[in-house]
């Protein structure tokens, strides 16, 4: 078999696997409906598109756009008519509301890897990923700093060492 054909075949398989892992079909940014492209550029005007996926169903498609604004991510979901379904904007901790900053101060002995402002409809939430002693804590907080959800993940390598 021709080496070029084999390489192309593996690339197609790899791209297919990426689509399955990503949860949607990766599409070119040029294929975005005009209202979606306009809405995305309004929300993150200085952003660079990293990835575009078509998710949902044929009856209710959802366009997910991952962008970078400098070194921060800005992920958005839209209906085909450009209606915003969700926005996740990575932020610096000093940009968070004071009550959220106060709640995160409890974790001063850890490393805050990422904080995001999440807007779903009229609901505004904040998510934080914190590492403490090889344990990852994922927090979801309301604008007034109250913890809505908390997940704790231990480093899998440590679990293997204990066995």
What is the averaged pLDDT score?
Answer: 86
The proportion of residues forming helix, as a percent range, comes to 25-40%
Task: Please state the overall shape, judged from the principal axes of the Cα atoms.
Answer: elongated
- Count of domain modules: 2
Query: Structural class, from helix and strand content?
Result: alpha+beta
How large is the count of helical segments?
4
CATH topology (fold) name of the largest domain = Nuclear Transport Factor 2, Chain: A
The proportion of strand residues reads 35-45%
- Listing every helix as H and every strand as E from the N terminus to the C terminus, the arrangement reads HEHEEEEHEEEEH
CATH level 1 class label of the largest domain: Alpha Beta
Query: How far do the termini sit from each other?
Result: 45 Å
Number of strands: 9
**Which CATH architecture of the largest domain is right?**
Roll
Instruction: Work out the radius of gyration.
Output: 19 Å
Q: How would you write the strand order of the largest sheet?
A: 1-2-3-4-5-6-7-8-9
Uncertain residue segments: 1-22
Main beta-sheet strand count, sense and barrel state = 9 strands, antiparallel
């Amino acid at each position: 078999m021709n080496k070029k054909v084999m390489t192309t075949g593996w690339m197609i398989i790899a791209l297919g696997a990426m689509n399955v892992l990503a949860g949607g079909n990766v599409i070119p940014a040029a294929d975005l409906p005009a209202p979606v492209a306009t809405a995305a550029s309004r929300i993150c005007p200085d952003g660079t598109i990293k990835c575009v996926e078509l998710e949902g169903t044929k009856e209710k498609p959802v366009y997910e756009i991952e962008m970078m604004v400098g070194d921060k991510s800005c992920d958005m979901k839209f209906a085909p008519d450009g209606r915003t379904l969700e926005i996740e904007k990575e932020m610096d901790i000093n940009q968070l509301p004071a009550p959220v900053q106060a709640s995160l101060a409890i974790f001063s002995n850890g490393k805050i890897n990422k904080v995001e402002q999440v807007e779903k409809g009229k609901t505004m939430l904040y998510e934080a990923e914190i590492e403490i002693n090889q344990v990852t804590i994922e927090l979801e907080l309301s604008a007034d700093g109250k913890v809505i959800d908390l997940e704790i993940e231990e480093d899998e390598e440590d679990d293997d060492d204990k066995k």
